[in-house]
């Protein structure tokens, strides 16, 4: 009886130990005129999309926070996921987003509040708002990317509704291989 009990406990502990929790590798602070000030943390991943249906190839760092909230940093018109390899210190300024192709390495950002995917609200840079992204390390495809960010984003339905994202960091986020 004791031996069976011991094996059951050992199996439960072994299975629990095999579950790897999602890595917390980003954080930032939020404030705004219609947004309650808060900090969000979560898990970040990258993606690269160069399919013909997209007007511009994009590299993204997608940071997923609690309750469906997210912060997305986007490089537009980037020719390959390998284009920004081996960067150790580079700052990008987010320009106003306009129609048509942007110059290579143009960047932007989007913040989706918790539950925002349901309500359709996504705050984005452009139209007079912007910010910066600083890359402190990028070992390229199959490696990791780290850096910091801050930006002001606007609700497209109510331009007076802005969100300021400050003190943002992402650390050792795995870089997509393609």
Residue-averaged pLDDT, rounded?
78
β-strand amount: over 45%
Count of DSSP-assigned helices: 2
Kindly state the percentage of residues in helix.
10-25%
Measure the end-to-end span: 54 Å
Shape: globular
Largest sheet: 10 strands, antiparallel
Would you identify the regions where 5 or more consecutive residues have pLDDT less than 50?
3-20
Whole-number total of structural domains: 1
For the CA atoms, what is the radius of gyration?
19 Å
Order of helices and strands: HEEEEEEHEEEE
The beta-strand count equals 10
Reading side by side through the largest sheet, how are the strands ordered? Answer: 5-8-9-10-1-2-3-4-6-7
What does this structure look like?
With 178 residues, the protein is mostly beta strands. It has one domain. The protein is built from two helices and ten strands, in the order αββββββαββββ. The chain has helices at 2-18, 116-119, and strands at 26-32, 38-49, 58-64, 70-76, 90-93, 106-112, 123-124, 131-138, 144-155, 158-174. A ten-stranded antiparallel sheet has the order 5-8-9-10-1-2-3-4-6-7, with no helix packed on it. The longest helix is centred in the first third of the chain and has 17 residues, at 2-18. It is globular and about 40 Å long. Residues 3-20 have low confidence and may be disordered.
Quick summary:
By secondary structure, the protein is mainly beta. It is built from 2 helices and 10 strands.
What brief labels describe this structure?
single chain, 178 residues, mainly beta, ten-stranded antiparallel β-sheet, 2 helices, 10 strands, 12% helix, globular
